[in-house]
Specification:
By secondary structure, the chain is α/β, with parallel strands linked by helices. It has seven helices and six strands. The protein has a single domain, classed as Rossmann fold (3-Layer(aba) Sandwich). It has a four-stranded parallel sheet.
Length: 161
């Protein structure tokens, strides 16, 4: 089967990361899908703040090097920490680009969501930024403050040990 489309995926994890395994099986056989890691040292999710120029340069180089037809830039913190990132990426990269928060928002709008429960393993500051981002598109988000039953069970088990 001939490869018809080449897609690049840029994220903070290494291409060999098990993090990517969950969706590798979803990629059709006739699509070449390349995982790449962003350049630059990262010790915190907040390291993405102010790094859009470097990211755009890297994406442009990889698009040229691999002949990708489009690219996915993962990482909601990047968008939340860099207001206007989507507009910059769209203006500066000719090929189609999918971004984490923007794509999530588009999916929620497609399903007519107006309110969501925001479940993410980030700190309160990033949750606030995510909520503000979603609110710009008319999606109200809530954060569950009361621990869920599974969390309670884990805490009880840990105390019993």
């Amino acid at each position: 089967m001939a490869i018809k489309i080449k897609i690049g995926f840029i994220g903070s994890s290494a291409p060999s990361s098990p993090h990517h395994d969950s969706f590798r099986t979803l990629i059709p056989a006739d699509i070449s899908f390349s995982f790449m890691q962003e350049t630059g040292a990262k010790t915190s999710l907040y390291d993405a703040r102010g790094k859009i120029d470097a990211l755009i340069s890297q994406v442009k180089e990889l698009l040229q090097q691999y002949g990708w037809n489009g690219v996915i830039i993962s990482g909601a913190p990047k968008e939340a920490l860099n207001p206007g990132m989507c507009q910059r990426v769209v203006a500066e990269i000719e090929q189609p680009v999918a971004l984490a928060l923007r794509s999530s928002m588009a999916a929620l709008k497609t399903f007519g969501a107006k309110k969501i429960l925001l479940m993410t393993p980030v700190d309160d500051e990033l949750k606030r930024l995510y909520r503000e981002y979603l609110a710009e598109f008319g999606i109200e988000s809530f954060i569950r403050r009361k621990p869920c039953a599974l969390t309670q069970m884990r805490k009880s088990s840990a105390r019993a040990m």
